[in-house]
């Protein structure tokens, strides 16, 4: 089974997407399952992991409701307020829904880089482990050192780093990002999504611009801990769905890496789809 491990849907009328402004002309409209289904069919993708795009619990329930209506949505990564004193209770409640597979705080938008090391977050992460949910880590390179500390404190927590931690490909800031990412190499509970790289590159990116970063992701995590995702529709800022699929297929073929693992089996195992 082929799985797109990272995609979004949104409806502007819900009005809780603070980051989604009219200036983002390609994205400032509704994106619904009917918009994605033709692309999934074209590339023989059987299902997706639908990921939150707004920091509200209403977003979580909106996505879970969609998952009840569309068979292609195999799992949902939602949102819960980690700072809420009732966060553990909320996670337990949400986890009763069979399609909820993970929770993602929007760490990249939190000004305090030490937020993830707070006692409140630690308590909430313990609840994630107990409920067998994945912690989707939406982080940037400056968060990786703290993320390593977090992982060390929660050895039973499944962690999936989103978008390779969003390396600055435009400025070719490869070296330090690679060093920090290598700290996760021997941690089997940490995986990484091969997604979101195109929006970190120049608008005229070519496959060869991304390959050093993809090399690093596979060097660190190996083919059993890398999950392919489209990051659609955010990816439309820099690429068509097909161009990103073709780029990754080219890389996997050239490097003799298992497409079955990267395009599906890993996501199914890690998210327990």
UniProtKB/TrEMBL annotation:
The protein's name: L-fuconolactonase
PANTHER family in alphabetical order: AMIDOHYDROLASE, AMIDOHYDROLASE-RELATED DOMAIN-CONTAINING PROTEIN
Protein source organism: Marinomonas rhizomae
Lineage: Bacteria, Pseudomonadati, Pseudomonadota, Gammaproteobacteria, Oceanospirillales
UniProt-recorded Gene Ontology molecular function terms: hydrolase activity
Family recorded in the similarity comment: Belongs to the metallo-dependent hydrolases superfamily.
Pfam families: Amidohydro_2
Domain Amidohydrolase-related: 3-273
InterPro entries noted in UniProt: Amidohydro-rel, Metal_Hydrolase, Metallo-dep_Lactonases
């Amino acid at each position: 089974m082929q799985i797109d491990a990272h995609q979004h849907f949104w409806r502007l009328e819900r009005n809780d997407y603070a980051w989604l402004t009219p200036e983002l002309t390609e994205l400032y409209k509704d994106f619904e399952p009917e918009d994605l289904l033709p692309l999934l069919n074209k590339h023989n993708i059987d299902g997706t992991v639908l990921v939150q795009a707004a920091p509200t619990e209403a977003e979580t329930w909106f996505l879970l409701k969609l998952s009840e209506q569309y068979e292609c949505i195999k799992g949902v990564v939602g949102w819960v307020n980690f700072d809420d004193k009732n966060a553990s209770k909320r996670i337990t409640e949400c986890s009763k829904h069979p399609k909820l597979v993970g929770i993602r705080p929007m760490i990249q938008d939190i000004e305090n880089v030490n937020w993830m090391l707070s006692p409140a977050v630690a308590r909430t992460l313990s609840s994630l482990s107990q409920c067998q949910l994945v912690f989707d880590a939406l982080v940037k390179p400056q968060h990786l050192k703290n993320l390593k500390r977090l992982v060390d404190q929660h050895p039973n927590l499944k962690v999936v780093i989103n978008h390779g931690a969003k390396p600055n490909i435009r400025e070719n800031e490869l070296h330090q990002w690679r060093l920090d990412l290598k700290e996760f190499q021997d941690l089997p509970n940490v995986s990484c999504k091969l997604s979101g790289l195109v929006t970190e590159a120049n608008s005229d990116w070519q496959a060869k611009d991304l390959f050093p970063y993809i090399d690093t992701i596979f060097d660190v995590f190996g083919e059993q801990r890398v999950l392919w995702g489209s990051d659609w529709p955010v990816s439309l800022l820099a690429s068509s769905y097909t161009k990103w699929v073709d780029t990754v297929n080219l890389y996997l073929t050239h490097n003799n890496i298992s497409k079955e693992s990267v395009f599906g089996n890993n996501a199914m195992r890690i998210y327990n789809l």
